[in-house]
Amino acid sequence: MESDISQAFQEELICFICLSCLTEPVTISCGHSFCRACLQLSWEDPQLPVHCPMCREPCQQKEMRTNIVLKKLVSIVRQASLMKDLSSEEHKCVSHKETKRIFCVEGRIILCQLCSNSHEHRGHKHCPLEAAAEDEMERILKQMASLWEKIQENQENIEAENRTTTLWMDYVTLREEMIRTEYRELHPFLCKEEKKHIQCMRKESQYVLEKLRKSEARMVQKSKELRDMFQELMAMSQEPYVVLLQGLDDMVRRSESMQLSMPKGMQPELSALPITGLTKMLRQIQVHIFFDKITTFHYKMNLFNVLRKFSFGPHLKDTSEDSVGCYLASWESLKFISMKYYWEVDLQESGDWAVGVCEDSWLRNTNQIIDSEDAFLLVCVKEGNHCSLLTTCPLFRHYIERPLGRVGVLLDREDGCLSFINVAKSSLMYKYPAGTFKNPVQPFFSSGHEGKTFNPGH
């Protein structure tokens, strides 16, 4: 009768997925329990709802709660199994014929009482076998949790690199068409220069595309390595305590080493190739702008932080200083209504900056929506050693070399378009299509830093 109860009791501690004794049991909304690792693998599909592997009831959230009672019961069963294993002749001390109940931490070996007091082990740290087994189980679970985070991080990087590859190809196509149009408007007879420009851009873009594909392939290979390691740790976590106590060190070292070198996504960019005579021609219609309105904006969100997350990923966290929309901005009170205007803005080594034109309504709006239709800006955001260039209205990322020194702005009120020029390279960065805006606009600049006073128009 007692053996039947014991058998039924142990059967309730079996995971439906792996058919082994539960490891770090978690319970989901329907009431069923599984190993945490088993459920993580089962629920890896990002689509919701997920379903209970046992009863197929849908779950709207991937919520797993550690079942403390089940965890304690599993520990009791494992401890009992450990004592049973150690009572066999196989695990008795050969020298002293005593049961081994002490674990030598330095030697990673199970000892009897007399061996633990021997000259060889006397100076080592020892602990009861039961406590050592629980410590090793926590150690492997901690390692699995860390490894799972890396698996998810790497998967996000694979998806991001795949998106970047698609965006890169689309961007190159768009830029090629933009350069062709610019050459035909400015230099309709310089066909050879136009052709050479396009060929250089295509060659560079193809080289970058190959690097992007190789980068994604490395991430896919890393994913396989991480998952194999995770499966190995899973298998070890289901072994009896007596095996866990003696076979974990090498596995943990390999897992930790594997997590140190994670492949990172690329930040691709095209070189800023010059268009013959572009800067020289534009300076013939240059106007000198004095940004006479200088203030620190205190808005509900930070323009640069929002675009930083858009460029480099949502995992970036706001700091207490950057979470609000506090940054230096300046603008020219003169409103441009007609004709063409060209001016240059000195970036003065700013990390984050925004330059362009905007309407009065955008300056007065404390919400400052990024994709509103009254601000046409070229924005640079910096994260670590990487920078990203974007234009607003609509929000669009540009894979082009960041300008150093001065940015030129060409406003054509007659056609309702706006161009941004890399002055040092005499290169067109972006041109808004004709008819982009109709209302009066005024020059705008922001450095992204509070307390720095300068006039970028000088």
Explained architecture:
The protein has 458 residues and is α+β, with helices and mostly antiparallel strands. The protein has 3 domains: 2-74, Herpes Virus-1, CATH 3.30.40.10; 148-260; 278-446, Sandwich (Jelly Rolls), CATH 2.60.120.920. The protein has helices at residues 2-11, 36-42, 68-86, 113-116, 129-186, 191-237, 241-244, 249-260, 278-282, 303-312, 360-364; strands at 25-27, 33-35, 50-51, 58-59, 65-66, 102-104, 109-111, 126-128, 293-299, 325-331, 340-346, 353-358, 375-383, 386-391, 396-398, 406-412, 417-422, 427-431, 442-446. The strands form 5 sheets. The chain has a 7-stranded antiparallel beta sheet. Helix 5 (129-186) packs parallel to helix 8 (249-260). It is elongated, with a radius of gyration of 32 Å. The chain starts with a helix and ends in a 12-residue tail after the last strand. Residues 318-327 and 450-454 have low confidence and may be disordered. Keywords: Metal-binding, Zinc, Zinc-finger. Residues 88-129 form the B box-type domain. InterPro entries: B30.2/SPRY (IPR001870), B30.2/SPRY_sf (IPR043136), Butyrophylin_SPRY (IPR003879), ConA-like_dom_sf (IPR013320), SPRY_dom (IPR003877), TRIM/RBCC (IPR050143), Znf_B-box (IPR000315), Znf_RING (IPR001841). Residues 269-458 form the B30.2/SPRY domain.
